[in-house]
Structure formats: C-alpha cells, structure tokens
Amino acid sequence: MSEYILRVKDIVKSFVGVKALQGVSLDIKKGEVHCLAGENGSGKSTLIKIVSGVYEKDSGTIEIDGEIQSNLTPIKAIRSGVQVIYQDFSVFPNLTVYENIAFNSELMDNRILANKNRFRQIAQEAVEKINFNVDLDAIVGDLSVADKQLVAISRALINNAKLIIMDEPTTALTQNEVKALFKRINDLKDQGISILFVSHKLDEVFEISDRFTIFRNGQNVFTGPTSELDNESFSYFMTNRKFQETPYEGKPQDEEMLRVENLTSEGEFYNINFSLNKGEILGIAGLLGSGRTELALSLFGMNEPDKGKIYIKNNEVEFKDVADSIEHGLGYVPEDRLTEGLFLEQSIGLNIVAANLPNLSGTMDTIDGEATENEITTWIDNLSIKVADPKLPVQTLSGGNQQRVVLGKWLATKPDVLILNGPTVGVDIGSKHDIHTILKELAEEGLAIIIISDDIPELITLSSRILLMRDGQINEEINSAETSVAELTEKISLDIDQVV
Amino acid sequence: MLKNLVKKTEFYVALVILVIALLIHVRSGAFFQTNNILDILNASVVPGLFTVSTFMIILSGGMDISFPAIAALTSYVTVDVLNSINYEGSMVLIFVMAAVLGALCGLVNAFFIASLNLPPLIVTLGTQSVYRGLLQGALNAQQINMLPPAMGKFARASVYTAEDPVTGATSHLPAGFIIFVAVVILAYFILYRTMFGRGVYAIGGDLVSAERAGFNVLAIRYFLYIFSGIVAGITGIVRSSMNQMVHPTNLFGIEMTIIAGVILGGASLVGGKGSLLGALLGMFLLTMVQNSMLLLGIPGYWQTFFVGLVIILGISITSYRNLVAADKAKTLRDKSKEELVNE
Lengths: 500, 343
Fold this sequence. Notes:
- The complex is a heterodimer.
- Chain A is of the alpha/beta class.
- Chain A has helices spanning 44-51, 74-79, 97-108, 116-129, 145-158, 175-190, 202-208, 231-239, 292-299, 322-327, 337-341, 348-353, 357-360, 369-382, 399-411, 429-444, 456-462, 485-499; strands spanning 4-15, 18-29, 33-37, 59-64, 67-68, 82-85, 163-167, 194-199, 211-216, 219-225, 256-265, 269-277, 281-285, 307-312, 315-317, 330-333, 417-421, 448-452, 465-470, 473-479.
- In chain B, a hairpin with a 6-residue loop joins strand 1 and strand 2.
- Chain B has a two-stranded antiparallel sheet with strand order 1-2.
C-alpha cells in the first residue's frame, strides 16, 4: 500500500500550441487536506480535469492509490476513488435531493431502470455519512447554497471516494457556512479521506490545509507543509510580484459629502448615524444579516427607509429609486457582480457605459457613438483592464477584470460617493492589490468611499474608520490605526462563535 | 395528500377542465353525453400524440416545431408510394414506413441540435420549412382522396360506439385511440421508470451536470428528436386515415397549440419541469374548448379567439404560481440563514 492516494508526475498538456501545464507534479497523502493554489490560468483547473479523466495528458504519469493509470476516463477516475466537486456543484436544481445523490452511482452501476426506493436508500446512507440533515424529497433548487454543496459532497461519498477534489468550495458561502464546511472536511479527514482544496483565498486555505502546492504559469513553484508559508511568501509564489500593502494615508477633506441621521428600516437596521467627508474611506464590518447590505441598498435608493434622514452635501435628500441616487452622485458596486453588477452576455464596453448612457446621448436621445467609444477606452486604460477586444462579452474576463469593469461602470457616472460591497470577493491577489491601489488614488482625488467587506485586512488598510454593525445597529466605531486584524476579527466573530 | 395536490399545476388544469365542462353542460345540456365525450376523445388523438413527444423535448430543454411538417411529408410520401404500387396489404407496413421516414427527418433535427449544438428552435424552424418545401415544391403534393384500403378499414375500426338516443347519431372511439394510449404508456414508462428518462429531466435541469454525472446526453437528445419524428410519422397516418384523405397543408399551425398545451400543463420552456399528465391535461383543455364551441353554437371563427384567451390566462396562472413558489423558497432560505445567525 502506498502512502500516497495520488501521485502526479511531470504532467505536460498543451492546447492548440499553448502549453497549459509544463511538467507539473502533485503528491497527496492519504488522509491529508492538500491545497492547490494558483492564480487564474496557472493550470489548476487543467490538472484537475486530467486527474478526473476529463482531459487526456500529453505526457507524464498519474498514480492513484499505488496504481499507474494510463488511459484515465471520468468513469475510471471515479471507480478508482477520485471525485470532483465543481464550483457550481453540478446539481440538478429541478430534481429531488435523493435523485441528485443517487444518479451518479446508479449510472456507474449501469442501471437501466429507475427505482425510487433504491434511490432513497442510497441517498439516506450518503447523507448519514456526513450527518447532513435534509429532507430527501426537497427540490435541490430550493436549498441554500451551503446545502447544495452538501448534496454534492454526499453524492461524492457514495462511490467509496478516497480523494475528493473541491474546486473553489467557499466562493458562495458565508463565514458561518465556511466554518461548518471545514468541520465536515475535518471529519472526512478522520475517516481517512484525502481532500484536494483548490482555492486562491488566502486565509481560508491556511486554516484548513496540511500541505500546499502552488502553480504559476503551468509550473510548480512551491510544495511543502503549510507552516513553511506566510501571507507574504504565498502572494509572492502566486504572482511572482512583491506586494507592499500600504494603508491609505490621504487626509479626509473638510467638506462633508454624506450624512445619515437616525436611519431606520424596520427589521433590517435601526438608528444609523454617521457622516462621510470628501476624500475619506469608511469601512463597514459585520456578519451577513447584520444589516450592512440593507443599509447600503437604502443609500442607493433600492430599499426605502422607514425613518431618518439622508443628507448629501448638507442638503436633505430622499431616494425614491436608483436613478434618484445616481443623480445625487452616488454609485454602488454590489456584492455579487455576476447577478447584480454585470450584463454577463453583453460586451465589456457596453457594461462600462451602462450606467452612464444618459450623459452619452446626443440629440433626440440617440447614443453618441464616438463619445461612447472614447468613454470605453478611457476607463479600460484608467483601470488597466486586460481586454483583447471591448466588444467581447464581459463573461470572458477573469474575476479581477470583471470587478474592474463594474468599478469602471460606476466611476464613469462621476460619483461623489461610491459604496462598494465586497469589492475584492473572488478576485485574485494581483487584481486585489491593483483594485486597492485604484481606490486609494480615487480617494486622494476627493471621492468619498464606503467599503463593506468580510476581508478584515482589507478594511484596516483602506479605511480610517470602521463601523462595526451587529443586529442592525452600529455597535462600535473603530479607529483603524488603533486596532489589529486579530482584534477586529475577534470582535466580529463574537457572534460566529456563539453559533458554532 | 390534499395539501400536496393543491400545489400541483395538474390539479388546477383538471379543475378548469371540470368547471368549463360544467358550464358547457349547463348551457347546452350535451357535454356529459357519451357521444360528446367520445367526440372529444376522438379529437384528442392527433394532438395527444403530438403532445407526448413535444412534452418530452420541451422537458429536456429543447424545442421542436417541425413535427406537423414531418407528419404531412411522411404521410404524403407513404400513401403516394403505396398507391403507386396498388398496395393492398396490412396497416403495419404503412405505419412502419411512415415511422421510418419520420425517424429520418428526426435524425436530421437531432444531428444539427445534439451534434452541432445549434439552437433547437432555429433548427426546427429551418427544417420545418425544408420539409414543407419538399412536399409542396419538389413533390408538388396535392390532396389525395384515394387511400390504401387498409387505411379505410383502420379508420372504420371502432373500439367503442355510442348512439345518441334522441337523434340516433353515432359517435365512435377510433382504433387510433389505442395507438395514443400505447404511446402514452410507453412515454410514461421511459420518463418515470428508466434511468434514460430520468436523464431527460436531468438534461433539462442542467446539461453540463448531466454529462458529468454520466448520462449519455448525446444519445438521449438523439432519441428525443428521432422519437418525435417517429410519432409525427405515425400521427400523420392516423390523421389521414381518420380524415380519409392526405392533405399537404392542413396540419400546419397546430404546433403552437400543442406547445401552448404543454406549457399550460406546467412544463417550463427552459426545461426540467413538468409532467406528462399535466401536458396531456393542458392539451385536453384546449381541445375541449375548441370542440365545445360548436355545442354552444358559437361561430367557428370565435374558436381561435377563445383558445387564445385560455392560453394567455392559463399561462399567466402557471407563471404566477411559479413566482409565488420561488418567493416562498427564498423566504424559507433567508429564514434558515437568520436562524443560523441568531442561534
């Protein structure tokens, strides 16, 4: 018996002349949580697809549980114990939990007939393995994201999985859900199952992984125990760039841009008071459900408050809708850019000018083509968005570049106050650094910025003051210079610890 | 049990059918007479057959609007060829020939849709036009009134005959009804009792996930369009027999009514949702409304008006109920999240 569940050596893979993998290796021990990290395009997904039999390797060897696999197919990979949980979980939203769980193994067994009772039995066994409490008859589309993931994990476990590959498993989860997931991963580990965790989220991978492998441009740049890595070396291995995250040092100017007095929306937030000056970056921290997003939406005219007043430059205003608040100089970069921030199938260019079309219209309200082109070029340059052609759909871009497009869309409206909700979620380290730099520059030029984020280091570096929200109220105002990541994390997670 | 029942679209469609039936009965006094019931069942055979295959395709997230053209083309070619050799044999060969031709037409659809991954609506819009063009242009099709003798016998064969005690008029349940029932049973078995059929639901839910789970997506999609072609071929012959003629164009336009019936019965146009029973009820409702106009003495041209009204109303109700359901699911999710935070 081998000590390793998976040994991959010198794998080369090219796509039409482009070498995606240039001889990479990856060893995963039995019962370990291994993290495969790397930026977009580093070859992580390609390797996963080779190990799971979706792609054929050009050269190199794959050894699963001591056996050399020459012609790996998806079915063979599953039979030898390798299961992949994709980022989208690959579930059927229209079908029941028990069908979702049982289909794979039934197809593996080449079943012709469908038998509900057998499905149910298979599913019951699978959910029991991870103590997953769920109604087997529920329709998967009605479940929460975390539960959908658990359906996918249960499904992976039925075929005697020895290695479970999880592709960016935490992207759509809240902090509580991530904690719960990690607990389950540790349980699986105790059962001798290995986990390959594919991620580029720094703090999370450190917490859960025993060992690391880092890819860059299709090559190994690091393999070793987690203890040999720290934030700085991790970023360096990932990007080959050294990042110096400097705090925002610009001084807020004396001019007040936004003031909120006793703002209340029943059931969401109560008696919110704060003010924001020109050139200031204000942070808002708090758990999901603390009212932070609802507050942002109220400032952006999407959620009419019940009580309280909003002042823009000392004038009382009332936002009936988004158009109102745009007119008063507000911009909002939403939490989920994919569903709220972008027209995914539309071009990059159109996405950039989408919020600014009224200003680009000429006579008879027709769109001025030349002005639009100029506007698009300006923002692509200003935000250094990497595009082959602005006419391509925005969904062809990487997460970091997509986020820049959303940013560009709102900057194009020339706002006085910009509210960002999770500005660097799902964005790679390099882009994150660049987005931070852009925000600091904007603030220096006089933009007033509110950042809502789960990323504590991000809040501390960027903002001078942080409002800590809990149960719909501002619990505390914290001076960034006088706190630390550890202290603020603890303050926020007071609530989490009560849950788990 | 009752609680589960009122959640289902099928229940509402059945309820509407009952209400309309009662209304018609009160006005005409004739709805629940055996003759009328038989007439409606008789009228349901052709749309019913089309509904089965169309439902399966819509369920998989696909679309087929070429089936009336396939039915017209295959029944014309079959009858024309068999007439030219003075065919006097049994019905079996006639059905087999139409089914094989239909399968070929379906294969063409399947190739473009499943192998080349082109949008099904556009592909079948195109092939429909090609099949019609072949029929009317290349074959210069005219109405044929002389059918092989077996088709006449098939049309007269009756499963059940009823005579109106007052007028003495007879209505009968044709042999074609047996074919309809057989196709329904076959489709039901495939959809609900085989992994292949669960694959149709899976593809409609998420095509990529279906591939990853190990469903043979290509085979399933090929099957669906070929099956639709076969059903169209058989339906063309059933209809020609019942009408005692082959007409090159009078089926055209039926595709919209069929699709409307399927959607009315709760199927989702993007696939994955719906049941065979629902689709058949939807079709039955539309057929019944169309047929009963005559009983009420409403002129023929008002038929399309009322059918349109039923479609709009029905689909509004279905989408509204889906919206409410989605909303409810979201509230439930938010609530469970809140509980997690507040625990």
